Every structure is written in C-alpha cells, then in structure tokens.
Beta galactosidase small chain/ domain-containing protein (Phocaeicola dorei), 55 residues
Amino acid sequence: MTQTFETIEYYTYGLIENYNGRNHSTDLVIYCQSVDELFYSYIRPQETETKTYIR
C-alpha cells in the first residue's frame, strides 16, 4: 500500500475492538480513524483491532 492511506472510515458497531457478544453495546454508525489509531501494542502478538459486521 502507498503511504497516502492515512484514514479509514467504516460503518459498524463501536469504535473499539469488539466480538459478536459486544455488538449490541454500541450504536451502528460511521466511524473514522487514522491508521495510527488502529494499532495497539500488545505484550504478546495477537489479533489487533478485531471489528465485526463492518460495512
């Protein structure tokens, strides 16, 4: 990917990471974040920024 991709916009449940069990705790709306905001430095490598029902 080129470095011109700086933001992401998506229609989903919640701005934070979520799984099927958390889909009804937030509203289904359009969110916009920078690519840097999507990364979280976990202590051990694992899934990061898992989002469900993204449209």
User: Anything to note?
Assistant: The chain has one domain: 1-55. The longest strand covers residues 7-13. The CA atoms of residues 3 and 35 lie 10 Å apart. The beta strands are 7-13, 28-34.
